[in-house]
Amino acid sequence: MTSPAITVFRGFPVTTAYVWSPFVCKLEARLRFAGLGYKVEQGAPPKGPRGKIPYIALSKDGNDSAPEMVSDTTMISEKLVEDGIAEDLNGKLTPVEKAQDAAVRALLEEKLYFYQTYERWEQNYYPMRDKALASLPLPLKILIGQLGYRKMSSALHGQGTGRLAPSEITKLKTEVWGHINALLTASSRKRGSGAPDGMFFVMGGSRPTEADTSVFGFVASGLVCDAAPETRRIIRGLPTVMDYADKIHRQFFPDYEHWDEGKGEK
Q1: What tens digit of pLDDT does each residue of 90-149 get?
Q2: 127 preceded by cis ω (within 30°)?
Q3: Would you give the DSSP letter of residue 206?
Q4: Which of 67, 100, 167, 257 could be cross-linked to 59 through a Cys-Cys bond (beta carbons 3.0 to 4.6 Å apart)?
Q5: In sequence order, which residues have a C-beta less than 8 Å from that of residue 100 and are 6 or more positions away?
Q6: End-to-end CA distance of the chain
Q7: Are 232 and 124 in contact (CB under 8 A)?
Q8: Is pLDDT at 70 greater than 60 in this prediction?
């Protein structure tokens, strides 16, 4: 496999800590699971190919031409596999296991994501605004924050989450994390104490799959996000989820600040 130069644009200026975006944490986990080195830069949504964070710049074979810009974490993973840069994490799964893996990712990315977006933008607007717009002066922060809030509220209403009561969203959010905890508990028992490194993964195997990139991404970002106190409380109340994340952190992210040492990106 080739070893390209990869730059990850994360939307935050810090370089050695987890950030609030679950998709940024997911992407970094994908790269580290593949053993790929990369550097990080702040970037900005308007500069990305799809107008969102994260995205990457990919330079292959020492080519001096402009790097290829790729966005969307799923598309990035597929691109790396198709180009022979990274192995297919799901390559050894059966068709049924691949469907289960996809279902786990959808549960988080197409369901939990909206519950957590509601928590961040509707219930904890000011810390979320101040983080997302940290580089702007206060007058612009107020103006753009309100525009962003209205856009997010409209999107949540159209998607359906915004039509639910806060208590209903909390219930649904807690249920999703309960499902993740059940999967990880079963995987931990399956691997047992005989696993040489003590690691266990979502699908119960000895190596991570694409589902682990999503699960770890949502756990890590949830633990460091000051605009999601309820999510942090839920996660910390699940010892198996915490053990899973801690093991991945120590194995794959030893250079990053641990969530118990701080709160990630400041």
Answers
A1: 999 999 999 999 999 999 999 999 999 999 999 999 999 999 898 889 999 999 999 999
A2: no
A3: S
A4: 67
A5: 203, 211
A6: 36
A7: no
A8: yes
Give the DSSP H or E segment for 170.
Answer: helix 166-191
Q: For position 62, what pLDDT does the model report?
A: 59
Residues comprising the chain, all counted: 266
Give the model confidence (pLDDT) of 231-246 as tens digits.
999 999 999 999 999 9
Q: Are 236 and 223 in contact (CB under 8 A)?
A: yes
Return the SS3 of 56. Answer: strand
**Rama region for 165: left / alpha / beta (φ>0; ψ in -120 to 50; rest):** beta
pTM of the predicted model over 0.70: yes
Q: How far apart are CA 176 and CA 41, in angstroms?
A: 32
Please enumerate in sequence order all residues whose Cβ is within 8 A of that of 145, keeping only pairs 6 or more positions apart, or say none. 125, 129, 132, 133
| Residue the block writes with tokens 């995205």 | 55
Q: List the structure tokens of 43.
A: 């970037």
| Burial class of residue 92 (count of CB atoms within 10 Å of its CB; 0-12, 13-18, 19+) | exposed
Residue with tokens 């966005």: 71
Which residue stretches of 46-165 are H helix? 73-82, 95-107, 113-118, 125-132, 138-159
Residue 93, phi then psi, degrees to nearest 5: -80, 150
